[in-house]
From TrEMBL:
Superkingdom of origin: Bacteria
Residue ranges of domain Peptidase M24 C-terminal in the record: 538-597
Recorded family membership: Belongs to the peptidase M24B family.
Domain Creatinase N-terminal: 7-138
InterPro entries named among the record's database cross-references: Creatin/AminoP/Spt16_N, Creatinase/aminopeptidase-like, Creatinase_N, Pept_M24, Pept_M24B, Peptidase_M24_C, X-Pro_aminopeptidase_P
Xref: SUPFAM superfamilies: Creatinase/aminopeptidase (SSF55920), Creatinase/prolidase N-terminal domain (SSF53092)
Organism: Sphingomonas hominis
GO molecular function term, any single one: aminopeptidase activity
Protein name (Swiss-Prot/TrEMBL): Aminopeptidase P family protein
Amino acid sequence: MSTHSARLSSLREQLAHQGLDGFVVPLTDEHMSEYVGGYAQRLGWLTGFGGSAGTGAVLPEVAAIFTDGRYTIQVREQVSADDWQYVAVPENSVAEWLVGNVAAGARVGYDPWLHTRAWVEDTRVALAAEGATLVAVDANPIDAVWHDRPAPSPAPLAMHSDAHAGETSAAKRARVADWLNEVGADAVVIPALDSTAWLLNVRGADVSRTPVALAYTIVDADGTADLFVAPEKMTDAVHQHLGNAVRVHDRAEFAPALGRFAGKRIAIDPALAVAAIFDAVEAGGGTALPLRDPTIIPKATKNAAEIAGHRAASIRDGAALTRFLRWIAAEAPKGGQTELSAAAQLQRFREETGELRDLSFDAISATGPHGAIPHYHVTEESSLPIEPGQLYLIDSGGQYLDGTTDVTRVVPIGTPTAEMRDRYTRVLKGHIALATATFPPGTSGQQLDALARLPLWAAGLDFAHGTGHGVGSFLAVHEGPARIAKPTYPGGGPQEPLRAGMILSNEPGYYKAGEYGIRIENLLLVVERDLPGGEATMLAFETLTLAPIERDLIDAALLSHEECAWLDAYHVRVTETLGPILPEDDRAWLAEKCAPIAP
């Protein structure tokens, strides 16, 4: 029996001990985070799945793992088909699968600290129709059988300077207080880790690659706040930074504190708060108001300081990536390089800037068939040699005090095939179409998504992930609420209107299973634009990322005159901005890579 098969058996025994016939295992934590600390990686521990989004459902005789199109290949490589059925979402749901597999009278458990209230209500109704019951557990059964489960990170909180934040925490809390008075609420619960980090101008190191700390915040209508965080994380400097208006409590006191709101109206974001928070407020006599976290839009809409910081981070990061692209183009054809060694070299170039605080996510360093797995994660066991005839895809980013970066480039190792060049050029055409879009206020990413797909659709092709996601300011590399995606794709809905100051990725791709993958990703800033003769101020994109786009993969005959002009102008920006800060050899290589392309 494999390790993961044994773990599944142990879980089933524990479920029987707790009087349960099933259990649902989401890949999240009690803050509804996308990326979670090691202590919360229950789905990965149970199944071996290494992706960042998924859910497991376990019944006495059958189990299923639910993943979206980003992980279709990966889940089959990492999770045993002997133990788990593979179920695609959003075409299918956990509730639908449970209904089709549970027996009448079954008791299916869930951890109320890991699911939203909407999920609980929908699943409970679905099971009840089949004579089954959804049961909240007081203790997660996986924790009972995960004997070497890591402890939460003890890393201390750190201050995020007002110069980098562009606004003091007091001013941000005052804005939240104004909002509370407008909506008639006495307080708001802030469970999302990046919301607390943004609101209080603090950062942490509790989640890999995301500079946040495990904490909750409650803001009162007078602008004061209660921060719930492990005491060992607090330093004298952070206490002084927060000031007397922020009362600090042990994180363990958060759940009991939710019962102190008898007769009060408490705003709670139903998309970001787990069911247990709603339950505790209402059990204590409070009224839970399902309202959006008031920090979400201000956090996503970068101010002048954050925009200036991201521009600086983009230049620094682009120079490191350019050095890497020259290195991989020279070294990979010689042999001896692997997916792991390449990722490590890129990290070294970023570290040599002297400003890197962390990567913004584990690099997707993928050659050949691994490139066809959009969210591939390289390990010692999976790392392949980079060989001639392949396409090497590198999707990576850095965390800097002044900005978070995310960029993807593809490098041909040797001479690419005509098909590779055709697919790459179609992806580039879609990338340019989105980068050059002009649109009115109120437009959502869903309305723009097709622009990046049309050149692929024209050839009967597509890609099974969103085209763009929001990016934080020295925060989460995936930041809501704005997305550029089909409504049925991850992050595709509900659709948020784009606003000036938002930063989003532009990353169309193409993936040929078992052979290669292509993705071209830059970050975009939403800006206002007045057009000659126009009757209203429009919105458009400014490309922030600066790094050469691989000319050896471009079939210039497929590009229009306007597309060639955009590419040439972009490469002029790249050379003029990065050239002066690059070593001489890298500067010469960059100038050659960015030479004008023939129409």
